[in-house]
Design goal:
Length: 347
């Protein structure tokens, strides 16, 4: 069943269009991420769903009910803010129960429900502490519990991990996804972090300039990008400009690349992921010159120049007896990849 539906939703600020006639559906129990660069319209979309911003036109339908003209407190939603927005003068339990208090839930029921929500995020033992006594990860989980206790029809997350350090971000990311799946929470999340979106989401909606560039599963967007913007934004890709001729794709500097198996026949761009490319010292393949080597631990990243075109290659770090051991910048190399891993794309 559809939990959320946006129908031709549009937001204008004077002559500026923040969101342009967007259509989107979220099925019950799904986690959908709005992904895109700053200013693409993703946060505006989230706040129109929450009711904090009124759309210029279009409809927001929640569980089959048109809520476009309803105030935020009249919608069955819960928004977790980027800054957590915890009340410093309230205990953890009081913060979690605040929404219930606004709904006139009695004290005994409010305390019981707040404690149950804290148990779900494994913080019931900290119910009497204040936000200043918690770590960043713990504060994030309190914010989640404050939304969970309301039993919302849809859970809204606004850059929920942006204030955490890299290690803690990975841990909390797993906790949020596990909680969302176990409780079958319908969730709409805004993020600019590709890894976050790829690992947490059932579906992605990639936005740019107020428009949806592509929507689908993480695999759809990664393996089958609709255009050069999607290929370049989701994960990493070598997006190479050139032209299609009878014998294949020629880069702007004249290098002939292996035929791509899919894409637009008259495309201006050729796309292949760095991990799909093999690098050798000699043999078959496209000839290039090694410009840079970056050691990344388990992986090594090579930058290879095909004429004036830069191509990135990522492989497992070679061992001391590997043929690639001892490669140095300036060395000639050969690049090979399967045509099935390359796509021809429009701008």
């Amino acid at each position: 069943m559809k939990s959320l539906e946006l129908i031709n939703i549009r937001k204008e600020y004077g002559e500026a269009i923040a969101v342009a006639d967007m259509n989107m559906q979220i099925q019950r129990g799904e986690l959908v991420s709005l992904l895109g660069p700053s200013g693409c319209g993703k946060t505006t979309t989230l706040r129109m769903v929450a009711g904090f911003i009124a759309p210029t036109s279009g409809s927001v339908v929640l569980d089959g009910r048109d809520v476009t003209d309803l105030a935020p407190y009249e919608r069955n939603t819960a928004l977790v803010f980027q800054s957590y927005a915890l009340f410093p003068h309230m205990t953890v339990a009081q913060n979690v129960g605040f929404g219930l208090e606004m709904r006139k839930v009695g004290k005994a029921d409010r305390e019981a429900q707040s404690l149950e929500a804290l148990k779900r995020v494994r913080l019931d033992h900290l119910a009497d502490r204040y936000p200043r006594q918690l770590s960043g990860g713990q504060q994030q989980r309190v914010a989640l519990a404050r939304g969970l206790v309301l039993n919302p029809a849809i859970f809204l997350l606004d850059e929920p991990l942006s204030n955490l350090d890299a290690k803690l971000r990975g841990e909390v990311r797993s906790e949020i996804r596990s909680l969302q799946q176990s409780l079958e929470l319908t969730t709409l999340m805004v993020t600019h972090d590709q890894e976050e979106a790829l690992t947490m989401s059932d579906k992605l909606v990639l936005m740019e300039g107020g428009k949806v560039r592509q929507a689908g599963t993480a695999q759809d967007l990664y393996e089958r990008p609709a255009d050069s913007f999607v290929a370049d934004f989701v994960g990493r890709s070598n997006v190479i400009e050139g032209r299609v001729e009878e014998d294949g794709f020629h880069t702007v500097c004249g290098t002939l690349l292996p035929p791509a198996a899919a894409g637009q026949p008259n495309a201006r761009f050729y796309s292949v992921r760095p991990e799909k490319i093999a690098i050798t010292r000699a043999g078959d393949g496209v000839e290039g010159a090694l410009r840079e080597i970056l050691y990344l631990g388990a992986q090594t990243e090579y930058t290879v120049m095909l004429g004036e075109t830069s191509v990135t290659v990522v492989t497992a770090t070679p061992g001391p007896d590997d043929a690639l051991a001892g490669l140095q910048t300036g060395d000639p190399v050969r690049l090979q990849w399967n045509g099935g891993d390359a796509r021809l794309l429009d701008a």
